[in-house]
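Appendix B: complex inputs.
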Amino acid sequence: MSQSHYAINAVVRRTGLTAHVIRIWEKRYQAVQPERTATNRRLYSDEQVERLELLRDATKAGQSIGVVAKLPTDTLRRMALAASGAGAPARQKEALPDEASAFFEAALEAVRALDTRVLEQVLRRADVTLGTQGMLQRVAAPLAQALGSLWRDGTITAAQEHFATVVLRTYLATAAQIFAASGNEPVLVVATPSGQLHELGAMLVAASAANLGWRVIYLGASLPAAEIAGAVLQSRAKAVALSLVYPENDSRMEGELVRLRELLPAGTGLIIGGRAIAAYRPILDKIGAVPAQDLPRLLSVLDDFRK
Amino acid sequence: MSQSHYAINAVVRRTGLTAHVIRIWEKRYQAVQPERTATNRRLYSDEQVERLELLRDATKAGQSIGVVAKLPTDTLRRMALAASGAGAPARQKEALPDEASAFFEAALEAVRALDTRVLEQVLRRADVTLGTQGMLQRVAAPLAQALGSLWRDGTITAAQEHFATVVLRTYLATAAQIFAASGNEPVLVVATPSGQLHELGAMLVAASAANLGWRVIYLGASLPAAEIAGAVLQSRAKAVALSLVYPENDSRMEGELVRLRELLPAGTGLIIGGRAIAAYRPILDKIGAVPAQDLPRLLSVLDDFRK
DNA sequence: AAATACTAGACAAACAATTGACAATAGACA
DNA sequence: TGTCTATTGTCAATTGTTTGTCTAGTATTT
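Resulting structure:
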């Protein structure tokens, strides 16, 4: 197989664990036993990295490291499969209230410094410690929201805001990558309608849904109703999620949304979220779209459509 | 096999490594053993250049040079494959002339089908088979260009065009991340100026430059001159690359570009590329910006600014 | 003459390993 | 409830390694 030998630093990058933890897991529980160079540096194989990832997931799900570290890798793989299949979050560790905000602050710091690497690292670590949904709801979503107001404040520059948007966007896209391999998940089309240029909200939805086992077709920002409907037809999607942020009083929006509902096959779910939904509330009611004020509510709505 | 022999300068150009590093890798780890001229100048073969590229990628991925430099080239190739996540067959260099267009066609097919997974897979495979620069220049760039005209044709829908843009964008961003910097590479700021909404060209530049060893700060689309300059100052960037695609006759562009040049520290490189540069040519000359018609030319320009 | 390339040796910053100590948490038990 | 204990992650200090960069001096190419 592959002969890769990763230094501990590379393992840190891939697993999101700290070097401290990796070493202490080895010392105390013999979780992995990496080779050593002639000068005593650890060298990890792909298998060992995978094992560490599995251990990370198991502990994140509430298992104690002392127990799972002794299990063979096969068993860990089965556990991971079972856990993701059940979708039932066992006893997800409740993070401290200020733990999420520490990540938030760290992320903001990286944004100010225009430091891609650190920003990504913070997001990945939040992903590991809070769980993907926790990271999305308590770090990424607040960050996405804060960017706008901080920029209006003058607390951050437009360049920093753009920068953060791009990095966040990329992270969400890859985090949402959830192997669509199985192919028979329900399909969700995500986009923002014509005139709505802010796409971060839509990306959050896409990442969140993908993490919960939807196959997401993400179409980006500012797409006419007919196009969205076309994509739904082509992909036989079960539901559509739109995000409305700004502007809040686009007169053409009503026409767009009505048209979209007309063009969608009967039975297709239509979920609309984002800052601006309050302003468009009457329209949503009229066309029977389900509003979702925030990410948790969106997920529960998605769950209903899944059946 | 081609019998070309490259002087170290050419190798620097193609790999993004410094001459110092190339020599020290040879001395300390016998990474490559180039021929010598009668007067002791190093001469590198294509195979050796490829090997250096593989070593560069492996080290950027976190493997230590001391370990990987001793591995046979075959193993390095396999590792590059594994790292890019493709289970693809290890096609050797010298791609057929139409191989790139086969990838192009396959990519287009995936776009029509709105199939994220396949589209990503095609890009990854192209990456491995043609090399990163080959993939960028012969698949991604043509695809980015084609999307616009195909959409105007009606050959593809706007939804498909949006979809392709997003997937391509994400792939380029992560591909560029793989080469994430160790910290002391020269910094390049990439963006599109106010009014220019198409960012795919800028992303291509960013990915390409990152692959050649720049630390790229990517700011996305439509940013005012003052903001771009601010980011340059903050990051102490050596150069700025802008992409102009559409519109081709924005009257405010001249003001923006002039202002940008004024705000940039003396000595900062200013490179401008994209479909629309012909239309803005007089302005570019006026402010002393270097035009770059295509990706290969951009890279050689970047090379000049490196020092 | 100026730019480029070569060697050798020195250097500093980043990276790793080890150890021992510490703090937070959960569960057990009185 | 409070106290004890085992578990777990974190931290600091120290030592050693790895790696890219730099300088100086010489030679070659353009």
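Confidence is low (pLDDT under 50) at residues 86-95 of chain A.
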